[in-house]
Amino acid sequence: MSYRLGVDVGGTFTDILLIDEDSGRSFRAKTSSTPHDQSVGVLTGIGKVCAAASTSLESIGQVMHGTTVATNAILEGKGAKVGLVTTAGFRQVLQIARSFVPGGLAGWIIWPKPEPLAALEHTVEAIERIGADGEIVTPLDEDDIRVKLRGLRADGIQALAVSLINSYVDGAHEARIAAIAAEELPGVPVSVSSKVLPELREYERTITSVANGYVQPQVARYLDNMMRKLDKRLYILRSDGGLASAPAAAANPVSMLLSGPAGGVSGAVWAAAQAGYTDLLTFDMGGTSTDVALVQAGVPRIGRETRVGDLTVRSSSVDVRTVGAGGGSIAHVPALTRALRVGPQSAGADPGPAAYGKGGREPTVTDANVVLGYLPGELAGGEISLDRDASRTAVAGIAEAMGLPSVEAAAAGIVDIVNENMFGALRLVSVQQGYDPRDFALVAFGGAGPLHANALGRLTGAWPVIIPPSPGVLCAYGDATTSLRDEAARTYIRRFSELTDGELRAIFEELAEAAASTVEAEGAARDEQTVTYQVDIRYHGQGFEISVPAGIAAFDGEGGGLKALGAAFDAEHERLFSFLLKNEHELVSVRAAVSGPRPHVAAVTLAQGTEDPAAALRTTTTVYVGGEQTRANVYDRGKLLAGNVVAGPAVVTEMDSTTLVLPGHAATVHPSGSLLIRPVAEEA
């Protein structure tokens, strides 16, 4: 019997999912995250899930891991001391950066500009110059760069980034500096921009290469530690939703900055497809934050930028927006405004919400849900017992500060505000991008997502609301059911009048070959690979470009391919900005992405039942909803059958999450195991 293991490490919980590849049967474990060393929580969870499945670590063939090691290194400022090599005259590239300041009109006054990841005193200039046409203008002075690298060694740098002007055209000088660095800085990892990001724009290329070096030592240590302890083939989820082998991920860790959220989107796509939906909004609410994304025709939107805190790098990632709203988000009433606020501060895993009984005293969203009666007496399969009295005491402080008549009213206010915060994030990926959320289903997961999903469905008008099986560990499911992926890119600036279909097709094929070789080396045969192409286009004279997909079959040398690309760009430009220009189209960059086969995991089909879910009824409870106390049925999700209809108000419990069905709504159990929540009128 062969198993696949999915692992997802979040800010509060570590989720483990073990899948029997033959039957599709899955086993779940949820344990508290261990921020000081994530591998501790991971190995604890693996031990628990193996015990649940009556198996051992030896029976697991592959481990797929979504990790926040790189993300946390950026957010916590605990990365390596990075040295940077630039072309002479470009030493302050990170300090000049881009002319963008977040916030309102006075943002430039009050915004504390973050320190660059590579300090100016650790930045040296190489005497060299390659022109934009690839011609060598100034040869590399090797003796000079040796002396400067020795100076960086004396400064104690732990990683080196090399980013020379125009190296995206010819990376020969960067390669030579990397070779010299291997001699002068033995053991220090080197990030070369022409390999990390061989694309136009020196700032974006430099900051991405520096970020790669900043997180590389920490990521490499963690992955080496995991491979040593597991003694298994370990794969890491990339930010774009694909898998990379652990050695490949360690060499290019900037590609895994959004590893965790990408796993959730992959899992949501898989679960929604089983229920027959391909256009969806994903809503992943955990203990610390909420991640949302948009999926169209079963394909997540992939962005060309990855944002983590104040850092923005140029790296492909699922277009996920994050808001500081989770089960652990702390509610507070500022003395100045006397208006209730929720988040972004979080109680995290330690001490956690007051309900966890670990010493937390501040009111959180989880405490509000406990007060309202939406949560059972324990979480994570009994690992965490909830202290209702502690939750009431914490939320009572909010009621007193706002002069509310009851603790329940304060708790309802906390839930309403956090729902509005998450609604704002969903609008960013839908309305702001030109999409109507009413045209999509809403897939809710994460430990806290199903509790708030019905309310978010009402706010967005996105129906049905889909609660997948095992929603609390869906990110781990996404990790276990995704495929190997790699991409190759090149900047190639040409007006369409200067370009032919045949010329562009040749570039596509060259890039596809480079990416396919990597995926093949990691175990995916050529005949099992899928290739997709993307180009960045702009109107000639514009300072920005838009990515559009390309179909290689259209490039037959007759001009049909370029014509189709121009039309696709115009349509996307009009959707985003509501206008078109008459300027000529201009190609900027070309990319080819190669994916291996998605692993075969048999889908579970529930036994058929009637509409009556009485066999799954556990008990009844009192919940506070709509400003009043009311009775609600509590169901055991593991006993629900296909076709059962759970009418609200109701609470559906399972090991890793709890689903709330509001009055006036009903959840129908799909044969795939998902709960489909709709307004009762729509059900009828």
Automatic annotation (TrEMBL):
Residues 503-668 form the Acetophenone carboxylase-like C-terminal domain. Residues 205-486 form the Hydantoinase A/oxoprolinase domain. InterPro entries: ACX-like_C, ATPase_NBD, Hydant_A_N, Hydantoinase_A, Oxoprolinase-like. It comes from the Bacteria. Residues 4-184 form the Hydantoinase/oxoprolinase N-terminal domain. GO terms for biological process: glutathione metabolic process. PANTHER family: 5-OXOPROLINASE RELATED, HYPOTHETICAL 5-OXOPROLINASE (EUROFUNG)-RELATED. This is 5-oxoprolinase. GO terms for molecular function: 5-oxoprolinase (ATP-hydrolyzing) activity. Pfam families: Hydant_A_C, Hydant_A_N, Hydantoinase_A. One of its GO terms (cellular component) is cytosol.
